[in-house]
Design a protein that fits this description.
Number of strands: 10
Family: Belongs to the ABC transporter superfamily.
Pfam family, one: ABC_tran
Oligomer: single chain
Strand content: 25-35%
Distance between the termini: 52 Å
Bound molecules: adenosine-5'-triphosphate
Radius of gyration: 18 Å
Structural class: alpha/beta
Keywords: Amino-acid transport, ATP-binding, Nucleotide-binding, Transport
Domain ABC transporter: 11-239
GO molecular function: ATP binding
Length: 239
């Protein structure tokens, strides 16, 4: 009898440590993000969520442990090579060039202008308000509109793995819902895997297949999304 082989996860972290100066912020953290799923990472302020995303991307050095993308170690792989391999990042802050136009901010996601027209069209289908405003400077968009542009730019190259940092912060409920729909559509259309750091529980409950709570640099709890998830997550996040 042949044994069934488990599918290779899109991303796996094994006993990863990273941090700043003498302090480890991420502390022997292990987690697995399955292919094609939306994985929500939650946790109180300062627990290391952004640091974890930056460690995956190589912006913060991994001190020990192992990170695999499609089963292959990404130790020493530059952020630029990861982007070329289909990884995209929608950061929490300082993400846009305020004095560049929306078109030029979107263009920055690409290696060449060959994909520009098609990419802008795809982003404008998700966020139609951008269509009439592509020549406007990004800095003239409202905070919420800028968040949509940040996500749009991360989607320009139809990423295989999308890392998102608190995209819903400060957004009105209808925009949060739109973002949720966009993420679900991208996953269905392109088999995109999403790792999202998120504080908005309704968004997480609406889109995520799995969730984890980060506490002091480690996974404190994790589960597939089910009927008990809401209460469990709330218990972790209460002050
Ligand atoms: N560049 C840095 N140098 C030193 N310490 C840092 C740096 N960046 C973050 N930290 C510290 O690392 C810890 C984790 O920060 P991080 O931004 O990863 O947390 P977080 O869970 O994303 O928080 P939040 O929910 O508030 O965004 C915090 O104590 C923070 O002050």
């Amino acid at each position: 009898m042949t044994e069934a082989t488990a599918p290779v996860p899109k991303l796996s972290l094994i006993e990863v440590c990273s941090g700043y100066g003498a302090v480890n912020i991420i502390d022997t953290l292990s987690m697995t993000v399955p292919q094609g799923q939306i994985f929500a990472l939650m946790g109180k302020n300062g627990m290391g969520k952004t640091t974890l995303l930056k460690t995956i991307l190589g912006f913060v050095a991994m001190r020990s442990g192992r990170i695999d993308l499609d089963g292959q170690s990404i130790a020493g792989v530059s952020p630029a090579s990861l982007i070329a391999a289909g990884v995209a990042y929608a950061p929490q802050e300082h993400a846009l060039f305020q004095d560049l136009t929306i078109r030029d901010n979107l263009r920055l996601a690409l290696h060449t202008d060959k994909e520009l027209k098609q990419g802008i069209e795809r982003v404008c289908q998700h966020f139609p308000f951008l269509r009439e405003r592509v020549n406007q400077k990004a800095g003239t968009l409202s905070g919420g509109e800028q968040k949509m542009l940040i996500l749009g730019r991360a989607l320009m190259l139809q990423p295989k793995l999308l890392l998102i940092d608190e995209i819903s912060e400060g957004l009105q409920p209808s925009v949060v819902e739109r973002i949720g729909r966009v993420l679900i559509e991208e996953c269905r259309a392109n088999n995109t895997t999403v790792l999202m750091v998120e504080q908005n529980l309704d968004l997480v409950l609406g889109v995520a297949n799995r969730w984890a709570v980060l506490k002091l640099g480690r996974i404190d709890d994790s589960s597939e999304m089910d009927s008990g998830s809401r209460a469990r997550i709330l218990a972790h996040l209460k002050i």
